[in-house]
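Support request from a user on the community tier.

User writes: "When I paste my structure tokens into the form, the page sometimes reloads and wipes my input. The last time it worked, I copied everything first. Here is what I submitted, just in case something in the input itself triggers the reload:"
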């Protein structure tokens, strides 16, 4: 028998609000999680963005807050939702606003890059639900603009990314402000050991629910890889974009600088392209995302951190212009396409120095990604490849003339060994992410500096 929202025990006013949304039947994570959350249990949800996890925790929280029937006291917060990026915070808040329409429930959000004064002003009245990035929340707590002494619910969303981004110290700091008698929910796309440790520290006898095994991308996504030098990537991307005019593409770059340069090149070539990365102000990022959502832009170039959790249903193609240095990010990246039952294609570009990353992705997927062009790089080519940051000689689009999209170019594997696997050690992953560390491990490098404020 199919479960309906009414079967999950949600109140009539929530069911009424749901009728006006696109949420007709609960998704698997909602079916599994909502009854436990309604029963007041701590919960650990292994689920990616796009599974409906925001409603999975948002609807029961709303139900319980509506039950209280009176507004929060000034400067207090009833339910705190922490998320790693400003984009994700605003997406969660937008989602909650849909469910709370027509109710007295007050949802507030605080993120860096926006006016602290305005956020403090808003919090003076108290919030039923506060969605926040850790850094800005700590600023407000330290200034005395908000208090968590009456917070009964804590949600840690995309917990694995929060740890990746070095937020463990911020989480510890914030947790100290929240009463121990609370309900804690943790959602994560992956469940490495440090997440289990985090859960042991902050959750009590949690119920565990899981919807899609980690590292298993949606079956519907067509995946392919081009083996090509860095200098050829832009031209191959250009060919693909020209082949699919008007279809939205998300292009992932490794660095802020590289992504910006690529975006400018695409614009110079006449594409309607924008970029989001850490060097852009919050306003610029919001504006670009809105333009992309409204299909005013066809191409969005993004870094992993900036694109984390964003939900844009129209994305038809994902290009891994640079391979991700954390294999799980490949799954997150390609999960941006094929949303809501639509078709999706993911095309990866693998330069010699990225062979280690590609192999890590294939190991995680437990399959080989079909080759669209080139051949796996031979060990000697991989060994001689410049490491990230050393390949500045070639600018995007200034390669050796380009490899045709979908063509089978120069065989670079060692003679007699087509497709030979490189034996060289994968190069160290540099770039956007701090290594994951567990509680009690050495201090993450300059963790505070990565807090988006
Ligand atoms: P999330 O995993 O929370 O980021 O959800 C991603 C998208 O799924 C959002 O655009 C939601 O509106 C949508 N969504 C969530 N729950 C459902 C549902 N039960 N049916 C259809 N769409 C849903």
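"...and here is what came back when it finally went through:"
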């Amino acid at each position: 028998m199919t479960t309906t929202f009414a079967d999950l025990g949600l109140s009539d006013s929530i069911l009424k609000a749901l009728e006006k949304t696109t949420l007709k039947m609960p998704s698997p994570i909602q079916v599994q999680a909502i009854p436990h959350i309604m029963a007041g249990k701590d919960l650990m949800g292994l689920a990616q963005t796009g599974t409906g996890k925001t409603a999975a925790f948002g609807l029961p929280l709303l139900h319980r807050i509506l039950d209280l029937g009176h507004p929060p006291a000034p400067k207090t917060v009833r339910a705190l939702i922490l998320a790693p990026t400003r984009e994700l915070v605003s997406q969660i808040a937008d989602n909650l606003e849909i469910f709370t329409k027509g109710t007295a429930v007050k949802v507030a959000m605080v993120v860096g890059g926006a006016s602290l004064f305005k956020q403090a002003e808003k919090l003076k009245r108290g919030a039923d639900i506060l969605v926040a990035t850790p850094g800005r929340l700590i600023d407000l707590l330290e200034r005395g603009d908000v208090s968590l002494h009456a917070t009964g619910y804590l949600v840690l969303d995309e917990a694995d990314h929060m740890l990746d981004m070095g937020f463990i110290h911020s989480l510890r700091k914030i947790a100290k402000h929240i009463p121990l008698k609370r309900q804690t929910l943790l959602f994560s796309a992956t469940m490495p050991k440090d997440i289990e440790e985090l859960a042991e520290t902050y959750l009590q006898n949690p119920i565990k629910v899981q919807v899609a095994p980690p590292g298993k991308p949606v079956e519907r996504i067509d995946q392919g890889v081009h083996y090509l030098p860095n200098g050829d990537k832009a031209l191959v991307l250009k060919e693909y974009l020209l082949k699919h005019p008007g279809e939205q593409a998300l292009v992932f770059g490794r660095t802020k600088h590289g992504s910006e340069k690529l975006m400018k090149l695409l614009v110079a070539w006449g594409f309607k392209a924008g970029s989001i990365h850490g060097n852009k102000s919050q306003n610029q990022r919001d504006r670009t995302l809105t333009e992309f959502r409204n299909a005013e832009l066809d191409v969005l170039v993004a870094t992993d951190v900036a694109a984390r959790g964003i939900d844009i249903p129209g994305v038809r193609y994902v290009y891994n212009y640079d391979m991700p240095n954390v294999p799980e990010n490949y799954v997150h990246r390609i999960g941006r396409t094929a949303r809501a039952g639509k078709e999706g294609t993911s095309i990866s570009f693998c330069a010699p120095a990225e062979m280690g990353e590609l192999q890590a992705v294939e190991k995680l997927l437990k399959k080989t990604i079909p080759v669209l062009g080139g051949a796996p790089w031979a060990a000697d080519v991989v060994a001689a490849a410049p490491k990230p940051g050393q390949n500045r000689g070639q600018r995007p689009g200034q390669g050796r003339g380009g490899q045709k999209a979908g063509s089978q170019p120069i065989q670079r594997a060692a003679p007699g060994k087509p497709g030979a696997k490189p034996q060289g050690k994968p190069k160290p992953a540099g770039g956007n992410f701090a290594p994951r560390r567990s509680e009690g491990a050495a201090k993450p490098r300059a963790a505070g500096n990565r807090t988006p404020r």
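Agent notes: The reload is a front-end session timeout and is unrelated to the input. Residues 221-401+425-438 form a domain with the Rossmann fold fold (CATH 3.40.50.300). The pocket of adenosine monophosphate is lined by residues 22-23, 25-27, 30, 49-55, 311 (CB under 6 Å). Escalated to web team.
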